[in-house]
Design goal:
The structure is a single chain. By secondary structure, the chain is an alpha+beta fold. The chain has 3 domains: 5-128, Rossmann fold (3-Layer(aba) Sandwich); 146-154 and 225-355, 2-Layer Sandwich (D-amino Acid Aminotransferase, Chain A, domain 1), CATH 3.30.470; 158-221, ATP-grasp fold, A domain (Dna Ligase, domain 1, 2-Layer Sandwich). It contains 10 helices and 18 strands. The protein has helices spanning 18-31, 116-123, 133-140, 142-151, 170-177, 200-210, 255-259, 275-291, 326-333, 338-357; strands at 5-12, 37-44, 50-52, 59-60, 69-70, 77-79, 88-90, 102-106, 159-163, 181-185, 195-197, 216-221, 226-234, 239-240, 244-248, 265-268, 296-304, 310-316. The strands form 5 sheets. Strands 13, 14, 15, 16, 17 and 18 form a 6-stranded antiparallel β-sheet that branches. Strands 3-2-1-8 form a 4-stranded mixed β-sheet. A 4-stranded antiparallel β-sheet has the order 9-12-10-11, with helices on one face. A hairpin with a 5-residue loop joins strand 2 and strand 3 (50-52). The N and C termini lie far apart (45 Å).
Length: 365
């Protein structure tokens, strides 16, 4: 039997999406073939400290989304760029925690999905699953993402961006975007800090809440229609899954509906769509993936109106891998089982790293 691939599975993080990350990481860990992979579990706590976790027993309340947490050990780790094959070491002893062949960051939100940790992996010369620095950064920032999609002539709804030091008048926003409208932190996901606003009182409260999570927020026109999602997989030649549909039981697809309330939404997988619309969704998903310089994986979310017009809502470069997450479910119905999907994501990470290593880092005269 060939030697196992050493995979560092990283979870948690200093983000409001910390608990979602733990749910996703639990599923990824369970799906990894233990005969094929040697798994190194690393948890980042809410304060940003890194911990070497006990394999198979690394979460408290793993089946309770409201109480799930890292089972912190005393084995805090530090990062050593001078040891590229064994970059993670115990803080107390300096001892290596083992060889790392590829990193699988199951980190949602800032400092995990926004290009910051991807830049660290690049400095360490480590292969890693998912989008690179640029694709991660623009995919995380809803403002930059929507401007790039718009400039590429891809369909997006109208939006307004506001920073902490700017004032925004309710009347002006209502005149431009209409009501209801959505207010969101620009750099967060999983529906954290998102509000659907119907009147002035909700508007002011939503602004205050969104600014708790980011210094820049985005106000979006409400687009009535069906919520359609499509998974994308690949590097230079990405492919798209069959689309699925989210039918929220809440007023919109909130954090609670996504991760806590098992009956928070109905998922139609695949979505009941005409073949022409399926092809259009897949084409737009791949075009968005390429426009935003993504690699590895992403989930592209759409609104489909009654007249069959499609609008891109957003892209998610580290989509959820929880038991009710759309990304793996869409690939399963498209013929790629969960464990095979994980294998392919690791293969794509190794392929990209090998491709980049062939590039020259020295001037040739």
């Amino acid at each position: 039997m060939s030697e196992k691939i050493h995979v560092a599975l990283i979870m948690g993080g200093k983000s409001a999406e910390h608990e979602v990350s733990l749910q996703s990481a639990k599923n990824v860990y369970e799906a990894l073939d233990k005969d094929k992979y040697h798994i190194i579990l690393i948890g980042i706590d809410h304060l940003g400290a890194w911990h070497w976790l006990e394999e198979g027993d690394f979460l408290n309340h793993p089946d309770d989304p409201k109480r799930i947490s890292l089972k912190i050990s005393d084995r805090r780790i530090v990062i050593s760029p001078n040891h590229p094959e064994e970059p993670f070491r115990e803080e107390a002893t300096g001892r290596s925690i083992g060889r790392v062949d590829v990193v699988f960051p199951v980190l949602h939100g800032p400092l995990g999905e926004d290009g910051t940790i991807q830049g660290m992996f690049k400095i360490l010369d480590l292969p890693f699953v998912g989008a690179g620095v640029l694709g991660s950064a623009v995919g995380m920032d809803k403002d930059v993402m929507k401007r790039l999609l718009r400039d590429a002539a891809l369909p997006v709804g109208d939006f307004v961006v506001v920073t902490q030091k700017q004032t925004v008048a309710f009347e002006a926003v209502r005149e431009r975007l209409g009501l209801p409208l959505f207010i969101k932190p620009a750099n967060l996901g999983s529906s954290v800090g998102i509000h659907k606003v119907h009147h002035r009182q909700e508007f002011e409260a939503a602004l205050r809440d969104a600014f708790q999570y980011d210094n820049k927020i985005i106000l979006e026109a409400f687009i009535p229609g069906r919520e359609i999602e499509c998974s994308v997989l690949g590097n230079e030649s990405p492919i798209a899954s069959l689309p699925g549909e989210v039918i929220p039981r809440h007023e919109f697809y909130s954090y609670e509906a996504k991760y806590i309330d098992a009956r928070g939404a109905d998922l139609k997988i695949p979505a009941d769509l005409p073949e022409a619309i399926v092809q259009q969704v897949q084409d737009l998903a791949i075009r968005a993936f390429r426009t935003l310089c993504c690699e590895g994986m992403a989930r592209v979310d759409f609104f489909l109106q009654e007249d069959h017009r499609l609008y891109i809502n957003e892209i998610n470069t580290i989509p959820g891998f929880t038991r009710i997450s759309m990304y793996p479910k869409l690939w399963e119905v498209s013929g790629l089982p969960y464990s095979s999907l994980i294998d392919r994501l690791i293969e794509l990470a190794l392929e990209r790293h090998e491709r980049e290593r062939r590039l020259s880092s020295q001037m040739k005269f």
